[in-house]
Each structure stands twice: as structure tokens, then as C-alpha cells.
């Protein structure tokens, strides 16, 4: 009798554990089934048609131009393009067309092999720093590395500014050739030249998200970053150099200084990729780089993939900047 009671009690305990666990698993599977395709996650491999339609849905839901009349007609065209697709790769032309219309010129599709090749071929390039008398010259290249590499990148400029803070009377920030990437390490590198607060904004269709600097911490800028010297601020004039290769995050960093006193830009207009991309992974390892927002400055200007024209357009920006800083 006691044995039966013990068995019954164990059964109730087991059921008490298994039923909630089953409910949790069922709920998790429901979430994956509903939202997983946005991240390339599926319970079973998607059909070619499902793969293509889910990619188009992600683009249409998040693309910066999703409200345009052109996108509405293009979406239908893209659906027809994938009707006879026999492989995931066969849907790529439709996806690329959708990206160009709904995401604009900054958006792109990268296959798994292309993404791997880009990662493998990236050469770590650190900032270069020097003193020209009492003027600091800091050149920040584009950055696509790991979190550890990002800290190493920022440290070069931060240490230089810290070690020479009593000598520096002005700064040349050279962003020529900076094609973008992860803005976090870039902004961290020169955080001592920026005031705490909202540096710029990502202007989505119905709201803004600020890029902030507070107590040395950069937030909402790529992977972000934390300054080695959060209490140090160098309140000196800053001359920023740009050219036609200054793009994406390089342009965003330029705009972080827009509207500040004692800041002037020199050189040539930037590339005009003043927008924000989000990364969405597809089932086969391909990646969507989709433009979801524009850059907005602290002054309220919205740059809709337009070039940033420098204050002084010149073929000799470094010389012009040094002259201004020394004046």
C-alpha cells in the first residue's frame, strides 16, 4: 500500500515537472517558428519559395524605403521572380533587386563565401598618430575587427592624447579613406574630444535612436566602447579631413562633431552613405545588409544618404587645417 502511494507521489512530481517543461518547449518552438526566419532560424530547412519570401518579408518590414510606391510594385515583381527558383541561390537576383529598392544604395546581399572571404581578407590597420608642433594629427582608418581588436584600435589614439594632453593645442582628425565599419572603436578613440551626451541619431521611419557618450562609454555605435580615460576632456579646436572615400561609419563619426564649437571640416565631399545598416542572416549563411535608418545630427539635420560637404573644399586639406589651427 505504501509502495503504491510512493509510486503515485513520484508520478505526480514527474508530471508536475514534465508538463510545465513541455509547455515551455512548445512556447519556445512557437517563438522560433514565428520569429526565427528573421534571424535565419528554422525548425526544418525552408523550401526555396519560403526562403525567398521570408527574405523579401524581412526587407519589406525593415527597409528604410518600405513605404515607397516603388517598393510596393517591386515587391510583386520579386515574388514572381522566385516562383520558378529551384535553389536558394536562384532567389538571389530577386533579393538583390528588393534590397536596391527598399534598402537603397547602402544595402547589399553577401553570400556565405563572400562574407567569409571578406572576414579572412581583412587586414588590421591601426590609427596613426603624430605631433606637428602642438597640433595632434590622428588618422583613423575603417575598422571591421573583433572586440579585442577594437580595444587595441582605440587605445592607440587614446594613449597618444593622454600622454600629450598638456602639449596639444589643436587636433587634426583625418578620416580620409575611412570607408566605415564598426563606429564603436572609432568614437571611443576620440571620445576625449567629444562632450558627454547625445552625439548623433539614427533616424528611423518613426523614431530616433541616439548615439551617446556618458562617463567614457559609447553606446549604440556598432559594438560601442569604453574609454581608458573617461574623465579626460581635451577642449581644443578640431579640424576634420574628409574625401570621397569617407563613408558610412566614417561619415557618422564626422557628424558626431557637427554643431560643436571650434570644429571645422576640410577636404572633399564624403561618399554619401550616411545611413545605418542592420545585418540579417539567411538560412544558407548568406547575409542581408539592409539600410534601416538615416544619420541625423545634434542640429536636427537628416542626411538621407547624401554627401557631407566640408566647410572648406580644398585639394590640400591638411595644410589648410594646420593653417586654421595655427591661426
* Count of all domains: 2
CATH architecture grouping of the largest domain: Alpha-Beta Complex
- The assigned structural class equals alpha/beta
Question: For the record, what CATH class of the largest domain applies?
Answer: Alpha Beta
Question: How would you concisely characterize the structure shown here?
Answer:
39% of the residues lie in helices and 21% in strands.
Describe the structure.
The chain has 327 residues and is of the alpha/beta class. The chain folds into 2 domains: 37-104, no CATH class; 123-276 and 292-326, Alpha-Beta Complex (2-enoyl-CoA Hydratase, Chain A, domain 1). The protein is 39% helix and 21% strand. It is built from 9 helices and 14 strands. It has helices spanning 2-35, 48-62, 69-81, 92-103, 112-121, 147-163, 183-189, 249-256, 317-326, and strands at residues 108-110, 128-132, 135-139, 170-174, 197-203, 208-214, 217-219, 225-226, 238-242, 263-267, 275-281, 287-297, 302-303, 312-313. Helix 2 packs antiparallel against helix 3 (69-81), helix 2 (48-62) runs parallel beside helix 4 (92-103) and helix 3 (69-81) packs antiparallel against helix 4. The radius of gyration is 25 Å and the shape is globular. The termini are far apart. The model has no long low-confidence stretch (mean pLDDT 90).
Amino acid at each position: 500500500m505504501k509502495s503504491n502511494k510512493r509510486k503515485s507521489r513520484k508520478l505526480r512530481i514527474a508530471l508536475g515537472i514534465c508538463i510545465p517543461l513541455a509547455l515551455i518547449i512548445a512556447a519556445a518552438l512557437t517563438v522560433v517558428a514565428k520569429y526565427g526566419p528573421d534571424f535565419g532560424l528554422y525548425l526544418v530547412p525552408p523550401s526555396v519559395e519560403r526562403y525567398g519570401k521570408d527574405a523579401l518579408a524581412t526587407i519589406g518590414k525593415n527597409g528604410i524605403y518600405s513605404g515607397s510606391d516603388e517598393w510596393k510594385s517591386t515587391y510583386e515583381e520579386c515574388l514572381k521572380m522566385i516562383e520558378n527558383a529551384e535553389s536558394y541561390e536562384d532567389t538571389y537576383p530577386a533579393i538583390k533587386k528588393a534590397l536596391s529598392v527598399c534598402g537603397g544604395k547602402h544595402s547589399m546581399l553577401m553570400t556565405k563565401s563572400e562574407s567569409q572571404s571578406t572576414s579572412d581578407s581583412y587586414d588590421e590597420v591601426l590609427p596613426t598618430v603624430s605631433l606637428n608642433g602642438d597640433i595632434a594629427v590622428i588618422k583613423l582608418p575603417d575598422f571591421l575587427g573583433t572586440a579585442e581588436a577594437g580595444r587595441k584600435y582605440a587605445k592607440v589614439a587614446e594613449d597618444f592624447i593622454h600622454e600629450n594632453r598638456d602639449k596639444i593645442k589643436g587636433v587634426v582628425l583625418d578620416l580620409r579613406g575611412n570607408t566605415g565599419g564598426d563606429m564603436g572603436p572609432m568614437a571611443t578613440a576620440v571620445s576625449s574630444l567629444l562632450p558627454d551626451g547625445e552625439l548623433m541619431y539614427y533616424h528611423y521611419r518613426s523614431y530616433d535612436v541616439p548615439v551617446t557618450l556618458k562617463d567614457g562609454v559609447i553606446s549604440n555605435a556598432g559594438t560601442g566602447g569604453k574609454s581608458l580615460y573617461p574623465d579626460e576632456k581635451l577642449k581644443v579646436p578640431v579640424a576634420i579631413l574628409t574625401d570621397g572615400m569617407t563613408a558610412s561609419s566614417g561619415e557618422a563619426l564626422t557628424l558626431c562633431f557637427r554643431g560643436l564649437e571650434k570644429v571645422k571640416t576640410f577636404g572633399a565631399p564624403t561618399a554619401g552613405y550616411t545611413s545605418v545598416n542592420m545585418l540579417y542572416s539567411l538560412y544558407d549563411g548568406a547575409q542581408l545588409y539592409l539600410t534601416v535608418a538615416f544619420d541625423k545630427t545634434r542640429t536636427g539635420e537628416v542626411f538621407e544618404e547624401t554627401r557631407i560637404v566640408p566647410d572648406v573644399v580644398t585639394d590640400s586639406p591638411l595644410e589648410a587645417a594646420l593653417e586654421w589651427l595655427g591661426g
